[in-house]
C-alpha cells in the first residue's frame, strides 16, 4: 500500500511527457468520435407557469439547420450543421470545425400543440410551449 501513488500525482507527472502535444495533434481527428463528455449543445427547460420555456445554445447555427418537433409530449431539437462550400477550398492542416449533428429532447406531459413559438436570436434558440389543462383519464366506477 505504501508504494501506491495517488492518481492525480500520476497524471501531473505525465504532463511533462515530451511528446504530449504531438500525441494530441494526431488524436484530435478521433476526438469527435468519442462523445463521452459532450451532449451536443446546452439546453435549459423552465416551467414558467402557463408554459414551458426551452432555451438551447446554438452559436453559429442558422435557422434552416435547426428542426424543432413536438410529438406526443416529446419536444425534440435537432441540429444538422453543414460546413459552407467556400471554406472547403482552403488547405487546412488541422481544423476543429466542420459538419456535425446533434439531437436533444425532453418529455413535457402537458404540452399543448397549439400556440408553439420558436425564435433564434444571438445564437440562442427559445421555444415556448404552452401547457394544456390536464385531462383526467380516470373514471370512478361505483360498485353495486
UniProtKB/TrEMBL annotation:
Q: Name one Pfam family in it.
A: HSP20
Q: Pinpoint the SHSP domain residues.
A: 34-144
Checking InterPro entries in the record gives: A-crystallin/Hsp20_dom (IPR002068), HSP20-like_chaperone (IPR008978), Small_HSP (IPR031107)
List all membrane-crossing ranges: none
Q: Which family does it belong to?
A: Belongs to the small heat shock protein (HSP20) family.
What is the designated name of this protein? Hsp20/alpha crystallin family protein
Amino acid at each position: 500500500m505504501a508504494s501506491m501513488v495517488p492518481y492525480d500525482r500520476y497524471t501531473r507527472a505525465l504532463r511533462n511527457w515530451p511528446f504530449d502535444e504531438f500525441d494530441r495533434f494526431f488524436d484530435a481527428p478521433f476526438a469527435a468520435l468519442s462523445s463521452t463528455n459532450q451532449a451536443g449543445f446546452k439546453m435549459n427547460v423552465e416551467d414558467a407557469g402557463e408554459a414551458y420555456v426551452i432555451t438551447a445554445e446554438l452559436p453559429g447555427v442558422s435557422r434552416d439547420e435547426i428542426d424543432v418537433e413536438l410529438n406526443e409530449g416529446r419536444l425534440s431539437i435537432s441540429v444538422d450543421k453543414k460546413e459552407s462550400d467556400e471554406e472547403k477550398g482552403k488547405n487546412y492542416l488541422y481544423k476543429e470545425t466542420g459538419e456535425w449533428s446533434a439531437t436533444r429532447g425532453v418529455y413535457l406531459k402537458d404540452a399543448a400543440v397549439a400556440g408553439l413559438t420558436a425564435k433564434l436570436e444571438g445564437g440562442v434558440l427559445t421555444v415556448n410551449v404552452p401547457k394544456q389543462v390536464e385531462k383526467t383519464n380516470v373514471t370512478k366506477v361505483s360498485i353495486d
